[in-house]
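so ive been stuck on this for like two days lol. basically i have the seq below and the ligand is manganese (II) ion, smiles is in there too. i just want the complex predicted, nothing fancy, no docking runs or whatever. if the output looks off dont worry ill sanity check it later, just need somthing to start from for the group meeting slides
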Amino acid sequence: MFEASLYAARRRALMESVKTGCILLPGNDLVGMNYHANAFDFRQDGSFLYFAGLDEPGHCLWLDCESGEEMLCGPSLGLDHTIWSGAAPSLPELAARSGIENAWTMADLAAACHDAQRPGRAVHYLPPYQGEGVLRICRLLGAAPDTVEAGASQKLVRAVVALRSVKSGEEVDEIRQAVALSAQMYAELMAACTPGVAEMELYGRMQGFILARGSREAFPMILSRRGEVLHNHSHDQTLSEGDLLLVDSGVVSPLGYASDITRTLPVGGRFTRRQLDIYEIVLRALAEGTSRMGPGVPFVECHFSAATQVAQGLTDLGLMRGDPAEAVAQGAHALFFPHGLGHMLGLDVHDMEALGEDFVGYDEEFRRSTQFGLSSLRMARRLQPGFVMTVEPGIYFIPALIGQWREARRLEEFINYEAIDAYLDFGGIRIEDDVLVTEHGHEVLSAGIPKEPAAVCACMGGEK
Ligand SMILES: [Mn+2]
C-alpha cells in the first residue's frame, strides 16, 4: 500500500467533489469458478483499490460527503477462516491501514444505507460489472436488479474519473515497475520465439515467467500467429518460419497498476520484404501518433495522425489510392486499422472502462463518432499532464471484413481491392507502447522494449 494519508486525501477530494449525499463504494468479492469455495483468482475493484488501498475481498467503503464520516465495512472472519485459509487481519486493523477510524459490520452498513435513504439523501454508487456486485447494491439499497445500472451516479462517475485520470508520481512509478517486468518478459519471449514452438508452450512459459516474479497478468495475454483477430485468446497453433507472432500482454505492479505492450515478431528472426513493408508503416504510425502527444492536445488528433500514416503507407504500397487525408476522413483506412489509437492505462488495463468509456474518453467538447473504426476510439479528449495512455496502431488483413467491403464496393475510390488479394493470408501487425503525458510533452515509458526491425531481429538471434 501507499501511505494511509494518501488514501485519506483521495477520499477527501472525492467527497468534496460529490458534495452532498453518501457514497457506497464496494470492493470485489470472491467469485466461484464451479462452486463457492473454488473461486477465480481474486481481482480487486480498481476504484476500491484507489480509495482504500486494500486488496482483501468482500469489503465496502461508506463515505458521508456532508459530515466527512468514513467507514470500512467487512465480514467478521472467525476461527473457521483461520483454520481453512489462515489468519486474516482484523477489520479495525484493515481500516487503520487505510487511515479510516470506523470499522463496521455489513449489518451496520445496511442500517447506514437505510438511515440515509429514509430522509431522501442520495446514495451514490458506481455501475457494478459483476453479478455479485449488482446483488449487493440490490440488497443494500432495496433496488431491483434491472434498475441498478441506470441508478448508478453520474456525478460519482465523473468525480472518480477526474481523480483517477491524473496519475501521481507514485502511481507512475508503479506503472514503470510493471513496464520493466514486461520488458524482461519480451526479452525472454523474443529469444524463445522459434519455428516449431507451440503457441501454448510460449504462453505457458511467459505466464510462468510473470508469476515467478510475483506478478500476474493484467489481462489474458494475446499470443497468436493469427494477429488479424484483434482479441485472439486461443493459443492452438504451432509457429513456422516466416510467421508473424503478435503478442499483446500486460502485467501488474506490486500495487496493482498495469502495463500493456504489444510487439509483433518474425518467427525465425527475419522479416520478409512484404512483412517489413507493413511493419514499417505501423512503426511510422506509432511514431507519428506519439510525437503529437502533450498537454492540451486532443487524443483524437493523435489518432488521425497515426491513421493518416497508415493510409499514406498503404497508398505508397498500392493497396490504397487517392488522397490519404481524405481517405482517413471517409474512414477508408479502417478496413486495415479498425480500432482506436489507444486508451488510458492505470489500475485497470483499460483504465476505468467499467465506469463507461464515454465518461473516461469523451466530454462536452468531443463526442463519439459513429463511423466504423473511429467509433472504437476509446479516448478522444484533450490530454493532461499525468495521463498515461497506450498508443497502439495496427494493420490487419481480415478476410471477412475485406470480403464484405469488396462486395459492397465500399470506398473503392480509396481502396485497391485487386491488390489486396495477395495479402489475404498476411495476418496482422500491432505495435503498442505506454506513454506518460508530461508538463511539456510526453515520455515513452516502454521505450526500452525493442521495436525497430533490426533491434527486434537482433533479440531473436536473427538479422533484419
Ligand atoms: Mn492496449
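The longest helix spans residues 169-192. The mean pLDDT is 96.
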